[in-house]
Amino acid sequence: MSKPQIDIPTGGAPQDLVIEDLVVGDGAEAVPGGMVEVHYVGVDFETGEEFDSSWDRGGSIEFPFSGLIEGWQEGIPGMRAGGRRKLIIPPEKAYGPAELGQDLSGRTLVYIIDLISVN
């Protein structure tokens, strides 16, 4: 697969985590507590501005679920390798309220994640 374009839905940001399979994979299933290798793109829901992309860094990333934001910990399990999934993550399941002072705090984030492998 190639780097995806993210189309931001119209209307207000959702209050709960939204999980949408764009491509259903047929490989191993991601499970909580495991390791995953992914490619991803993240954009701000409000502005549509891209803030991160493994594609732009030239390589996929591997990490344990325990190190991920809550929206990824809830949104990736059940996904199968070879799949592509869109997650729309409210601030509470991402980087918290704006008062926390991180660049992405207080923002609803949209990710498209390609699950390459499960380890």
UniProtKB/TrEMBL annotation:
EC primary class: isomerase
Pfam families: FKBP_C (PF00254)
Regions crossing the membrane: none
Catalytic activity: [protein]-peptidylproline (omega=180) = [protein]-peptidylproline (omega=0)
Keywords, comma-separated and alphabetical: Isomerase, Rotamase
Gene3D superfamilies associated with the record: 3.10.50.40
EC number from the UniProt entry: 5.2.1.8
Domain PPIase FKBP-type as annotated: residue spans: 33-119
Coiled-coil boundaries: none
Single Gene Ontology MF annotation: peptidyl-prolyl cis-trans isomerase activity
Family the UniProt entry places it in: Belongs to the FKBP-type PPIase family.
The protein's name in its UniProt record: Peptidyl-prolyl cis-trans isomerase
Upper taxonomic lineage: Bacteria, Bacillati, Actinomycetota, Actinomycetes, Mycobacteriales
